[in-house]
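Recall that a protein's primary structure is simply its ordered list of amino acids. Everything else, from secondary elements to tertiary packing, is in principle encoded there. The following example makes that idea concrete.
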Amino acid sequence: MADDAAEPKSSGSTTDGEPESAGVTAYAGQAPPPPYRVMAADRWALVAGLTAVVVLSALVGWLGFRAYQSHTAEVQRNIYLEVARQGAVNLTTFDYQHVDADVQRILGSATGSFYDNFSHRSRSFVDTVKRSQSKSAGTVTEAGVESQTRDQGQVLVAVTVKTVNSGRAEQEPQALRMRITVHKVGDGGKVSNVAFLS
């Protein structure tokens, strides 16, 4: 019995009341890795994950920006094209009976040096059209943007013009080519220069 008192019986628990198996880890039969290795592996995984997120975010942002730029350039291109087409029609379509309104329509869609030049010559243009009792109708047959920047675009426009003068036989349609410069004004554009091409 004295031996019984000297040796405590194994009750499956330690002196602090926790089961003995609590100290057993998943590394049974082998030494656990040093704690700094586990922390280093976790850090590398975290760094790699964060790097991937940053790279993907940058890529998505760059692609989004490029798509926005492309869309903006396409919208500008369409504005330049439409303004140039309408400008060509305005320049080649007039009627002696309401030529003053036709001139105002041209000036309303003009800006810069073209506006200045046309406004100075408009009086003689009106007089000539009224004197010859001319009627003219222009139709755009082709148009394309030659070049563009953020603020302006150059558009090549091909126009067929039918002109009738009082007391004369109807003339053959005339083919004209123009290089029209459109300057951005607000959300739209206005014609700032017109050059007739041979």
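The radius of gyration is 42 Å. The domain at 57-197 is CATH 3.10.450.230 (Nuclear Transport Factor 2; Chain: A,).
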